[in-house]
Amino acid sequence: ELAGEDYVVVSGLARGIDGACHEGALPATIGVIASGIDIAYPPQHAKLQEQIAREGLLLAEQPPGTEPRGSHFPSRNRIIAGIAAGTLVVEAAPKSGSLITARLAGEAGREVMAIPGSPLDARSHGCNQLIREGAILVQSAEDVIELLAGFDGKPRSRVREPEPDFAAAPDDEVPASTLADLLSTAPVAIDELIRQTGSSPGAVHMALLELEIAGHLARHAGAKVSLAG
């Protein structure tokens, strides 16, 4: 329906909802992958990836021949959040990577939307939490179109507070394991982690995202983080 109204659907070519979104929107779709442009991941989407490259647009930040690594997925999510006018989370368990994309979208001043679900269904917990934090509740394509019709690029969805200096230089990486060694269950300021590692804020944030996606990181008020209890 969105593609029929001249909207382009952006997603990450993952199994499930991602793949269905791409298939339903072709050719009006952009696939952002965590591997090199010539690597099909997941392998089940090889034909779909080729079709998107041929009829839509396929984007990859990693050089050709690069196999996907866990540290690549936060970067992929950042690209998805940045190039889309709005991010819609359809289903999300409490530790879903979709929640990372939603937070990045909010920090970038994009609209953040979520479809509510039963509190008895774990796949809806993330969506319901996003709505509690300020994401827009939507239930149809018409809701999305109405919301994005007046989009002017200015922040409106209040999903967490922005953290500055997000982008990291390619040669300034902090292994997630290094940060994990510095963390405990007691909250610590992200600025303190930046000071201890001597790395750029962007590099530290990328490593924190990797830990968060893996379910090892908890965020707290005041730009503080800790190991998930």
TrEMBL record:
One of its GO terms (biological process) is DNA-mediated transformation. InterPro entries: DprA, DprA_WH, DrpA_SLOG, WH-like_DNA-bd_sf. It comes from the Bacteria. Residues 167-222 form the DprA winged helix domain. Residues 1-148 form the Smf/DprA SLOG domain. Belongs to the DprA/Smf family. This is DNA-processing protein DprA. It comes from Aurantiacibacter xanthus.
